[in-house]
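Give me structure tokens for this 441-residue protein.
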Amino acid sequence: MTTRRRWAPARLLADVRPLQESAAFRRLWIGTSLSSVGSRMTGFALMLQVYELTRSSAAVGTLMLVQAVPVIALGLLGGSLADAVDRRRLVLVTSSCLTLVSAALAAQAYAGVGQLWLLYALAAVQALLQAVDNPARRTFVPHLLPTAQIPAGLALNMLSFHLSLLTGPALAGFITAAAGLKLCYLIDTVSFGAALYGIARLPPVPPQADARRPGLRATAEGLRFIRRQRVLAAAFLADINATFLGMPVALFPALNAAHFGGAPETLGLLTASLGAGGVLGSALSGPAGRVTRQGRAMLIAVAVWGSGIAGFGLTNVFWLALLLLAVAGAADVTSVVFRGTIVQTVTPDALRGRVSAADYVVGAGVPQIGNFEAGVLGSLTTPVISAVSGGLATVAGAVVLALAVPSFRRYRAPEKESKLAGSRPQASPATTEPGQATGLS
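Here you go.
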């Protein structure tokens, strides 16, 4: 009994074997983590610059919409491109272009241009590049890790994501108060060097010999696969429910001004609190790899997210607002880990770029539409009504989905896993279709 008590806490912690056993994954993870902090600082600076120019939640929501349109319109086509070319080279090109966009944002800030249309245009270009970059980047994990470590690898990626969400906005808030938001853009530009190094050191990730040419037909094939896989489609719907109805970020500047004094530091802490919860959820993600009913677990996490957002909208006590957002952030990371695991284990490698693109559209495009909806509703009514109604609607949506798609609620993770042949996982019956070999992604 003593031994079991001693090891029980360790079983809660994130599984770090992917970092220990895969040098390529470790380099990629470290480089991406450092660059993500800079990207979060740019996101904070963009949001604050738009709000300072307009004093409008709707304008902030429109910024999110401008970022969402390229993701939704071209994200799926980006996935078909990722399935047809060397994904490592593709990500090197897109990341280099993203560096130039960050440099342009820094230049306009230092020049004092202050044009709303220019901010929207640069945000749209940035989102367009990310719509190609992210689907290809998401396919790296199954290439670098065996199937048994995919949940751990995704949890570590979510830990990186939420560490950046925690540290990036918090640092940006204090840096903005001390030196102005232009420095945030500059730091982001410099931080891309770490990401480019991690990507450049990856092994080549060539397409399969029978890969389809990128285009609408290849994209449609990926969408048909998702439609046939009810569990996969339900996982996407669960996330859409949470992010379209319950995203609160566009409301942060107005709620910060109305309830918490309006200082940049407090705005940064509100955004960072989502990351703090995500860091906690990722750091204690050990049990996630042992959960078999992943669909049910995802629905519970979505309901907790919605409850946290509704509670945040109701309070004007700063510490309680931070706590509720942290709870929501922890639930979010749990939901995304299960969704990502389902996507990567159900999808054959020949379709992984396209399905990962759909995953990216759901995870990155829909939240921005949700922020637009929240900002517009907050301007038409009040930010409080927008946050509370969105959170409660998210909880109701999770219940409806559980009842409407019982196969998702009962879904169990496959027991079989890939075996490594060199550094590449072989296909398993759970992850491929007949006649298709699984490659690294």
